[in-house]
Specification:
The protein is an alpha/beta fold.
Length: about 210
Amino acid sequence: MSVRIKFCGITRAEDAQAAAKLGADALGFVFYAPSPRCVGVAQAAAIARELPPFVSKVGLFVNAAADEVEDVCRAVGLDVVQYHGDESPEHCAQAPKPWIKAIRVRPELDIVAECRRYAQASAWLFDTYDDKLYGGSGKAFDWALLPQQHRRPIILAGGLTPDNVGQAIRSTAPYAVDVSGGIEAAKGIKDHDKMRKFIAEVQRCECETR
């Protein structure tokens, strides 16, 4: 199975359209005001309307109220909800769309127990723990901490770049990889050449392992 690719932190229509043309499977819109990659609902909806079919639209939320998530999903036409904060399993279960739970990895975390807590998620996204940030740190974590067996698709995030994504895939065999800062010219502004190189490296790694 091909490794899916999600480009997160989309704020501009030209970046979204370039990503779709290059072959990204999903685009992420950040609806968390403190993030430098936060996008307004109207802006995200305008970008989403211009996307071709079969490109998934993912909304990233951090400790947002259930009614806010529902309103944004409806306004933007989101396909997937990504919870990236401290949401409880019960809160996540209120999502109006299939949902992903981000698990921020640190050595002392019982990852297996966390996965059990969020057993109803469509997928688990593993990102780097930072005590000041909910994602977007630009740092990779120790991929060896991830369990070898898992009952849900896993999405690998945290510090991925065109230079290390091949090794990340070989190390963790993820369902998908999720990148934001590693393909940027500046926060929220994508570098189209880095996007192309990232996708090319994922595809090259897949060819090696077939």
